[in-house]
Specification:
The structure holds two protein chains of two kinds. Chain A is mainly alpha-helical. Chain A is built from eight helices and no strands. In chain A, helix 3 runs parallel beside helix 8. Chain A is globular, with a radius of gyration of 19 Å. Chain A starts with a helix and ends with a helix. Chain B is mostly helical. Chain B is built from three helices and no strands. Chain B is elongated and about 40 Å long. The chains are: A mainly alpha, B mainly alpha.
């Protein structure tokens, strides 16, 4: 079990599956649960095949430092984006993600199309939201080689979201998505910074893996301070 | 395809920002000051995050 990866992986997957669930739920009201679930299953199948292919291809003895650099950069691309978005939303510069609005938009889009167009919306929604889950699973698994357990963590998040979604039979609007994105963004930025520099410069981090904790605290505290400054600035402009 | 690329890499500003972070790490390493990169890289990361959040 890859314990350091558990929390960022589970939280990332949960947020993405909540968004995918909203789309599939909206589509199911047009083409029925069976067809919508079929489209979601096809999307998940594509992601599973992608994960298996990636695992097979990348375990063929590529240079570890090269892989570490690529993964570090990918995690930075992902983490920086999530943290920046979460800060902007916390500071009031961007509206919070609204599952109800997403639900209404999806319903409006497929209301004009045919059965196959609606099926494609559910397939594409599951695939695109799941792509970020795939990225995180691949990134952590390449480092720890814990492909199966990391894949199972992503599946566990899927089960939790589906059970919660079926129980309320509505978009999961009470999930504190921005807070989760804030924490996950900080964690992913930490892993990305750590691996990028380790790939470029070797073992330079003081106290080895414990630096990850310091990095996570730095990005969390720095992000909170940044959100407070941006909020104060936007209030000054508004006043 | 465009949606896939955007999901994986983010927009152009995101790519430019991360390229700047990596350039800081690579530059300091090339100049044999990797021990400074331990502090400069997270600082550059937070700077890029601040820049992106304002956009």
């Amino acid at each position: 079990m890859d314990w350091p990866a558990f929390l960022p992986l589970f939280l990332t997957a949960s947020v993405e599956w909540v968004e995918a669930f909203t789309i599939v739920l909206a589509v199911s009201l047009t083409i029925g649960w069976g067809a919508a679930m079929g489209a979601a299953a096809a999307g998940l199948g594509t992601l599973a095949a992608l994960t298996a292919l990636t695992g097979g291809a990348l375990s063929l003895g590529l240079d570890l430092h090269a892989i570490q650099l690529v993964i570090g950069v990918f995690l930075l691309l992902f983490g920086v984006r999530w943290l920046a978005k979460a800060i902007a939303r916390q500071a009031g510069l961007k509206p919070l993600h609204d599952e109800d609005a997403e639900f209404r938009e999806t319903r409006a889009t497929i209301g004009k199309g045919d059965w196959f167009a609606a099926w494609l919306v559910a397939y594409k929604g599951t695939l695109l939201e799941g792509l970020e889950v795939w990225l995180i699973v691949v990134a952590f698994s390449l480092h720890s080689q814990a492909w199966v357990s990391n894949g199972l963590v992503a599946l566990l998040a899927l089960v939790v979201v589906c059970v919660a979604g079926v129980a309320v039979h509505a978009p999961l609007r009470r999930v504190p998505e921005n807070a989760i994105k804030f924490v996950v963004g900080a964690m992913i930025c930490s892993f990305g910074s750590f691996w990028t520099l380790e790939a470029l410069a070797g073992d330079v981090w003081p106290r080895g893996d414990w630096s990850l904790l310091g990095l996570a605290l730095f990005f969390l505290a720095g992000g909170q301070a940044l959100a407070a400054v941006l909020r104060a600035q936007s209030r000054q402009v508004a006043a | 395809m465009k949606a896939f690329a955007k999901t994986l890499f983010g927009d152009a500003w995101n790519i430019i920002g991360v390229a700047a972070i990596v350039a800081v790490a690579e530059g300091l390493t090339a100049l044999h000051h990797a021990e400074w990169a331990v502090f400069a890289l997270p600082a550059a990361g937070l700077g890029v995050i601040a820049w992106l959040a304002r956009r």
